[in-house]
Design brief:
Six copies of one chain form a homohexamer. Chain A is of the alpha/beta class. The first copy, chain A, is built from eight helices and ten strands. In chain A, helix 5 links the parallel strand 7 and strand 8. The longest helix of chain A is centred in the C-terminal third of the chain and has 18 residues. Chain A is globular and about 45 Å long. The N and C termini of chain A lie far apart (37 Å). The interface between A and B is medium-sized, with 35 and 34 residues.
Chain lengths: 286, 286, 286, 286, 286, 286
C-alpha cells in the first residue's frame, strides 16, 4: 500500500540512494534540553525555505538539478549527550563515504562536525580540512565539557596532525588558541584572504578535502540567526566569491553548521544559508 | 544500504503501516505564495514539539504507546491551488479509510478538511461530522474563492445533507450563515454546551463520526497562534473536558486544523495542540 | 478632480458627518518622542484590523451597518506635550457633542480622556462617568507630570465632584488612592461586580453618561498589548457580558484607551479591541 | 462643520491636488486573505515613520518642503483579486498622469506596478522603464497565477516591447528568464553597474521614464522587511549613490514596492524606505 | 570615596543585612551555554520590572515597605555545572537561614531548589515542603543528568522522607512518577484544591515550611514566559487566592522559579511574577 | 556576615575603586515612563552579554585583564526628569575624574552625556570632545524639551566654545544644524574620514579628550538595536579600525550611548556593543 505523502526534501535532492553523488542529511542537535532554541531547527528550516529558492544559479549558470543528491532525512539526536551524537554522525558519515558518495551534513551545532571528520579521516588517510569560522574552536576543554562546539577543531587536530587544517575568518578566541593555531594550523585569521593560494596548493596535490563551514564566519549583519554571533565578519558576497575560488578542489565531504533560525525572526538567515548551499554545491560539484 | 537517519515522527507514532490503527499525516497548506506565514508550519512544529511531550496522560491514566499509530509524513502541497490540495487530501484519506484505518490530518488551513469529508462520506455513507470552530464557515463563496476556509462546512453540508453536521463553539459569521446553521445543522453557537447530549444520541445509533477541530474554537488567550483569532472562546480545560465526553463514539476519522506557529513566538500554542491531540487520541481510541 | 483613493475607515463607519449619530476619531498619542512604541499605534491598528471583523454580532443579532458612524480620522498629536493634546481632544469632543452627536475616541494613552470629560461636562452639566480600569488613576501628580495617565480620574473628579464617577475593575494604586476612591467615587475594586445595580440607578434618572474604558481592565492573558499590564483582571467574556448590562443607558460619549499593538505581536489584542468595540456600539446604540 | 482631525500624511506632502507636482498614494495590497502579513502594511508604516524623518537632506542640501506633493491616501484594495487591484492602480495612475502630475505609488506587492506601467504607456507612448529588483519577474505565468509579482516585468515587456526596460540588480530567476532578459531588455544583472551610462543615453533623448523600485534589490542585511529576501544585494549607500546618478532624467512616474514591515520588528526597514524616498524625490524632482 | 551609583534592587528591598527579616537573592542559572535563553534572565527582569510595581496591595491592604527585606544581589553561576550551582545555593541558603532570616531565591531553573531544600533541612530537621508545579519532577535521572529540573522533588524526598512534601497542580509526568507521588508525597494533582486543609494541619503542628513555587503551575495563557509550558494550569486569580490561604503558616524559606522572560516578549510574565511575589510576601510575612 | 552573592559586573571589571584606572558605570535612562522600552536596558544587557565575550582581542593581542576597571553599578535614574539625571551624571563623573580616574558611562540616551561633559570641562579646562554620531544633536530646543538627545552637542558647545568638538559620521539634522556645525565644530559629516588627521593634531598638543560615542553612527544593518536608526552609516569593521587610529590619545573620559536592546531581538546589537567596548578599552588604555 503506497501512500501519497512524503517528507519535505531539500530543493532538488530528488535522487535515490543508488544514483546519488551527494548524500545530504540533517543533524538537528544543539545540546540543550529545552524544546525551544536553536540550531536544532536548522535542517528543517533549510529544507522548508529551500522550496522558495530558485534551482538556477545565475552567477554560475548552472542548475541544482544537474546534481544527483539524495536527502536522507535527519539523524534522531540523543538529546543532551553530545558524545553519542558525535558517534552517530561518525557512523552516518562512514556509511556514506564508504559507498563512494559525498556526505553533506546540515547542522546543528559545530561540535558534531568532529564525528564527520573522524569518519572521513578513516576513509581518506591524507585528508585535509578547510574550516571557515569566527571562532578558533581550539580549547581542549570548555566548561567541563570536552566535546563542546568550542573544541571541535582541537579534537580534529588530534586526529589529523599539524598543518592539515586551514582555518579562515577566525576573529575570536583566547590568546593560547591563537598561538596554537599559528603553530599547528594553516591559520588565516580575521577574513578569507589567502584562500586562493591555499586552494591552489591542494589542487596540485589532488588531496581530499573536508569543508566545514560554521556560518558565523559571516558578519551578523548578514546572518543574525546563529548561536554565538561575532561582529566583524565577512559579507555574504565576499563569502560567495571565496566559495567560487574553491571550484576544482577534490571535496569529499562537507557540512554547513550553526544556523539558528529562532534567533532571526525575519527568516533572512535561513534564506541565506539555502542560497549559499546552492552556490557551494554548484561551484564544487556541478 | 541502510542509513541511520530518519524523519521526525509524531511522539509515539512508531507503528508500521500494516500494524497501524491510526494513520497520521500532515497537510502543510495555507494557500499563500510567500515563504513565511502561517498554518503551513503546523505539522512540522507539532512533530518537533511532540518530542518534549509526555507519552502518559495523568488525566486518563493511559499512554500514547498503547495506540498503534503510523506517521505517514506530509502531503506535498501544490502551492497556491486549493482545489488540487483538497483532491490530494481526499485521495490520501480514501486510501487510509479504505484500508480500515483511522485517518488523522494535521493542518494546515481548514478549507482542506473538505477533501477528508468527501472521502469519508464515500467510505461511510451515513457519516456524521462533529465540528468545533469559532467561525460558521458556511459561505458558499468567499472573496471570489469558492474553496476558502470560510466555506468548508457549507460544502460539507452539500455532500452530507441536513442535520448531519453538528457545529459547536461558533461565535463569528454573517447573519445569513447563522440562520442557515440553525436551519440545516445541529447548531450550538458560542460554546461547547450541548455536546454531551448530542454525543449520547450518536452513541445509541453507533453512527460513524468525523471530528473536525478548528483550533480557533479556543479563546486566543490560550491559542494566539492561529490565523483568524476570535476572542470569547472556550478555555483549554473546558475543551479538554468536552473531548473526554466524546469517549465511546465511533470516530472513524479526524483532523486538527489552523495551528499557525509563527503567530505565537512563545511556542505555547504548538505545545497546547500537541497535548490536546494526545488527550484526543487517548480519549477516543485507547 | 476626484481621485479614487481614500483612507482606511473603521469597519462600517461609512456615514457622512451630517448623517452620523456617532463620530469616531483616533487620538494616537503616547507622550514619547521615539518613533516606535506604543499606544500611539492603537487607532491605526484598530482601523486596519476592523476590516477582518464581521459586521454582524451573533450575540446581539445586530449589524454595525445599522448605525450611522462617521470616521473623522486622527488628531495630529503635538508630540511630547500632553497638555496641548488634552486641549485638542477637548476641542474635538466639544465640536462633536455640541452638534448632538456621540464622540467616540480611540486611544492613545488614558491621560487624554481628561480632554473629553472636560468637554462633555460643559455640554452635559449633570454628567456621570463610568470608568473601567486596572488602575485608580487618582494621583494628583505623577513623576513631576500632573497630566500623566496615572492622574486622569483625579482631574475628572476635580471637574465633576463627589460620587459622579463610578470606577470598576481597579486592582492597582497607592493606599491613599484607594482611600480617596472609597470616599469620593462610586468605587467597585477588583472586578466588574455591582455594575448592574449602578446602571439601574442611572437609568431611572436618565442621566447622561460618559464611558471611559481603559482596556487594561482585562487580564493581560486576554490583552497583553497594553502599556501597564496588571494581572488579575477580568476575562473577555466577563467584560462583554457586563457591556450588555449597560444597554439602555443614555451614553453620550465614550472612549476606548491604552491599546498598544507593538506589545502583542500575535495581533490578538487589536482583534479583541475591535470586536469589543463592535459589541459596545451595538449594545449601547443599535 | 469642520473637525480638527485628519489623516496622517507623508512627511511634507502638504500640497493640495491643484498645486501638486507629485501625487503620492498607497497601494496596500499583498494578495493574501489573512489579516496579518505583509507588504499591505507598507504605505501606512511609511507615512507613520516619515514623521520622524528629517525634511532636510544633508547629502543634497535640499528640503522636501521645496516640492509640492499631494498625499491622496490609499487605494482600497479588492482583497484577493490581483487583476481588479491592477485595474485600480491603472485608473488612479491615469488620472494623475493625465493631469500632468507625477504619480508616486507606495506598495504593496510588485505585481501591481503593472497597472501603473499600463497607464503611463498610454499617456507617454515612448515610455522607458528603469527597474531595480533582485528578481527577474519575467515568468509568463507563476503557480497558475498570470498576474503574480513574479511576472510583472514580462507583462510590462508585452506592452512596451524590446529594449524599453532596463533591469538592474537582478540576481534570482530561472535560466529562461535570464536568457529572455539578455535578449529583450537592457539587462544589468547582479548589481547597479552600468546605470550611469544607461541614464546618459536617456537624457540625450529626453525620453520619459517610469522608475519602478523593488526594495529587495537591497541586500537583506539592510532591508530584512521584504517578502522574498535575496542575499547578495547592494548596500544602502550604493543604492543611494546610484539614485543620485539619475538626477536630470525626465522621470514621469515612479513606485517603491515590497516593503513588508511585519518581517522587520526593529523598524529599520521602514525607516530606510522613508529616507530613500526622500533622497529619490529630492534627487529627481527638486 | 563614596560613589552615587548602585545596583537595581527589588522593589522595597531596602533593608540592611542586619535589619532584614527576609533575604532575597537571584540564582540566574539555566544550565545552557548559549548567551541567549532563558530562566537565567529571571532575577534581573524581576528586579527591573518591580520598579513599576505598586508597593501597596489593595487585596491585603498592606505595603511591601512594612517588611524588612535585604536584596543580596545574584549568585554568580558556574555556567554549565548544575551540581556546583546547587552547592552554591545550599551554601547561600545556609548562611541566611542560620542567621535566623528567611531566604528567598528568585530563579533560575527549578533544579537548583534542591540546594535550598538541602540547607533548610539541616537548619529545620522537621521541615515540610509545599510544592506548586505543573510537573512531578520525580525522575531519579533525566537524560543522563541526575540533577536536572525534572528530578528536584525526587532528590528532596530522598532527604526529607515520606509524606513531608505536598505537591499541588501537577499535570505532567510519567505514570511511574504519578504512582510514586501517590505513595510517598501528599499529592494533589491537576489543581490547587486541598491546599486549605493541608495548610490547616501544618498550622496546628506549627511545622516549619519551605515553599517552592515553579511558576509553570499557572496556565501558559497567564505565563507564557517559562521553559516548559503545560496547558491546563490554574489562573492567576486562583493562584493568588490560594496563596492567601497560606497566611499564618510558619514559612521559613521560599523560592519562585522558572520565569523565562525571553519567551514572552510582551513582558507580561515578568510583571505577573513581580505582583505575585508581592502578594506572597505580604500574605506570609506582613 | 559575608554572603556569597554579588551583582553581575562587566567582563574583567574586577578591580577595586582604589586600584582602578577606569571606573565604569551604567546610566539606564531613556526618559520614558513606560516599563518597557528602550536604551534604559543598555547597561544591564551589556553586562550580561559581556560574560560571553572573550577577554582577549586577537586584533590588538591584548587582554581586558591587563586593565584595572571598577564597575560601580548603575545610577538610579529619577524617571522622567532629564535635568535631574544630567545632574546625577555630572556629579558621578566629577567624583571619578577628580580622583584621577577615567569615567566610562554606558548609556542610556545621548542627552545625558551633557552631564559628563560638564563635569569633565571643570576638571580639564582645555577639554576636547570627539563625537561619533548619525545626528547633529545641535538643536537648541527640541519639542519643548531643551535637554533632549537632539540637543546635547549644542549644549556641550555652549560650555566648550568654538572648534573644541569634532563630530564624525553625521548624516541627519536640519540645514541650520549643518550650517552651525560647519561654522562652530570640527565637522566631518557622513563618515569617519578625517579622523586620523584630527587625532594627530590632538596628540601633538597632548590635549585631554572626552570621547562620546552614539552607537547609531553605525549603519542599522550592523546595529538595529538603537532608538533612532539612520541608514547610510559606517560598517562595524570601519568603526573598529577608526578606533585603533585613536590609540595614543589622552582620553580622560568616555561614554557609549543609545544601545536599545529591545529593538533587536537577535541580541546581536548588544554583542556588538560589548565587543566594540573591549576594543576601545584595549586600544586607548592598554
Amino acid at each position: 500500500m503506497e501512500l501519497i505523502s512524503e517528507n519535505v526534501r531539500y530543493l532538488g535532492a530528488d535522487a535515490s540512494w543508488d544514483d546519488a553523488q551527494i548524500v545530504l542529511y540533517g543533524a538537528p542537535f544543539d545540546g540543550t534540553t529545552s524544546f525551544r532554541p536553536g540550531t536544532r531547527f536548522g535542517p528543517a528550516a533549510m529544507r522548508e525555505a529551500s522550496i522558495g529558492l530558485e534551482n538556477y544559479s545565475p552567477y554560475l549558470d548552472k542548475h541544482l538539478t544537474d546534481l544527483a543528491i539524495y536527502d536522507a532525512g535527519d539523524l534522531v539526536p540523543p538529546i543532551g549527550s553530545v558524545s553519542k551524537m558525535i558517534n552517530l554522525v561518525e557512523d552516518q558519515t562512514l556509511r556514506i563515504a564508504q559507498a563512494g558518495k559525498v556526505p553533506l551534513m546540515l547542522g546543528g551545532e559545530h561540535s558534531i562536525s568532529l564525528g564527520a571528520i573522524r569518519a572521513m579521516a578513516q576513509v581518506y588517510p591524507d585528508l585535509r580540512v578547510i574550516h571557515f569560522d569566527a571562532h578558533t574552536d581550539l580549547r581542549p576543554e570548555f566548561m567541563e565539557e570536552p566535546l563542546s562546539h568550542a573544541c571541535v577543531i582541537y579534537h580534529a587536530w588530534e586526529i589529523l596532525g599539524d598543518k592539515k587544517i586551514a582555518s579562515f575568518g577566525i576573529r575570536s578566541g583566547e590568546a593560547e588558541e591563537f598561538a596554537f593555531a599559528r603553530d599547528h594550523l594553516a591559520f588565516h585569521p580575521f577574513d578569507l584572504e589567502g584562500l586562493k593560494e591555499y586552494v591552489a596548493g591542494l589542487k596540485v596535490q589532488k588531496l581530499p578535502v573536508y569543508f566545514t563551514l560554521d556560518l558565523d564566519v559571516l558578519d551578523p549583519a548578514y546572518l543574525p540567526g546563529t548561536g554565538t554571533p561575532e561582529p566583524g565578519g565577512v559579507t555574504y558576497l565576499d563569502l560567495q566569491n571565496k566559495i567560487y575560488q574553491m571550484a576544482g578542489l577534490n571535496v569529499v565531504g562537507l557540512d554547513i553548521m550553526e544556523l539558528s533560525p529562532p534567533y532571526d525572526e525575519s527568516g533572512v538567515s535561513t534564506v541565506l544559508a539555502c542560497k549559499l548551499l546552492r552556490e557551494i554545491l554548484l561551484a564544487l560539484f556541478a
